[in-house]
Amino acid sequence: MNKMELVDQIASDADISKAAAGAALDSVVASIEKALKKGDEVRLVGFGTFSVRARAAGKGRNPATGKEIKIAASKNAKFKPSAALKAALNKKSAAKK
């Protein structure tokens, strides 16, 4: 599902215009990004938690030349699904056993 399909689904489910659904989705994404930039966690009960993970600097190799390169430290977004989301995703596979 891409962003436009998600906007269409939100508009249909909430019985609002596609423009309003798009603005709402953009606001949610921007709010999550803003909180992560500050180093905060974003917890959506029943869905999961977004957080920031720091990666240490390291060394790597250029596969073309074999020369060693330095990899800078960075921060990355991390998502941990909730138990409810995991259960919803695994209902069908559990019923097959």
Question: What is the fold's blueprint, element by element?
Answer:
Layout lengths: L2 H12 L3 H20 L4 E3 L3 E8 L2 E4 L6 E4 L2 E8 L1 H14 L1
Antiparallel strand pairs: 1-2, 2-5, 3-4
Q: What proportion of the residues form beta strands (DSSP E)?
A: 25-35%
Helical/strand content category: alpha+beta
Helical segment count? 3
So what's the overall shape?
Answer: elongated
Helical content class: 40-55%
State the major sheet.
3 strands, antiparallel
First CA to last CA: what distance? 29 Å
Number of strands: 5
What string, H for helix and E for strand, traces the elements in order? HHEEEEEH
- Average pLDDT confidence is 93
Spatial extent as radius of gyration = 19 Å
- How are strands sequenced across the largest beta sheet? 1-2-5
Segments where pLDDT lies below 50 for 5+ residues? none
List keywords for this structure.
single chain; 3-stranded antiparallel beta sheet; 97 residues; two-stranded antiparallel ribbon; alpha+beta
